[in-house]
Amino acid sequence: MPDTIARSKKPLGLALAGIAAAAAVLTVSLGNSSGAAAAPAARQNIVGTAAAAGQFKTLLSLARRAGLVGALSGPGPLTLFAPTDAAFEAVPKATLRRLAGNRSALRRVLLYHVVKGNVTAARVMKLTSARTLAGPEIHIQVRGGSVFLNGSTKVVKADVLAGNGTIHVIDKVLLPPTS
């Protein structure tokens, strides 16, 4: 199977390796009103993990509308660059309504947030780009110890582990280039 991830030819310094290791540490706590122990996030799929986090309601609602919940719940592995509800609030309401009414365009936007494979923070830090399931690549830069996608979208939390891949939380909604 061909690797769909573009690899950087630039060596990384020890500082970046330390940052990648720090970014890999994440604790996800899940509430459970029944008193029973909650299942660890790594045992849930991407959809279940995102739902349990509570900050991806808009993303999951749009994924249902686009018919992508099954794909994101499948065996994977997949990596989801997941915009928070706050990121979606920054998108003009007219744009969201237009996407919600155009399933094909909505699927393209959402699939632009998904990369095939389990791409952890340590690997993301070594990349300059990654091909998305929508087709176009997202461009990756490391600046000041932070990872940015397409120049301005920041990864605010890395390596939220799921049973079928990894979620990286981002602060903006990515829009694919127009063809």
Outline? globular
CATH architecture: Roll
> Please, what is the average pLDDT?
78
Write out the strand line-up for the largest beta sheet, numbering strands in chain order.
Answer: 1-4-5-6-7-8-2-3
CATH homologous superfamily annotation: FAS1 domain
SSE pattern: EHHHHEHHHEHEEEEE
- Unreliable stretches (pLDDT < 50, length at least 5) are 1-42
Helix and strand topology:
Elements: E1 5-7, H1 14-23, H2 46-53, H3 57-66, H4 69-73, E2 78-83, H5 85-89, H6 93-100, H7 103-111, E3 114-116, H8 121-124, E4 127-131, E5 137-143, E6 146-149, E7 153-162, E8 165-170
Parallel strand pairs: 2-8
Antiparallel strand pairs: 1-4, 2-3, 4-5, 5-6, 6-7, 7-8
Helix pairs in contact: 3-7
In short:
By secondary structure, the protein is of the alpha+beta class. It has a single domain, classed as FAS1 domain.
Could you name the key traits of this structure?
single chain; 179 residues; alpha+beta; FAS1 domain; eight-stranded mixed β-sheet; 8 strands
What does the model show?
The chain is built from 8 helices and 8 strands. It has 179 residues and is of the alpha+beta class. The protein has a single domain, classed as FAS1 domain. It has an 8-stranded mixed β-sheet. The protein is globular, with a radius of gyration of 16 Å. The chain starts with a strand and ends in a 9-residue tail after the last strand.
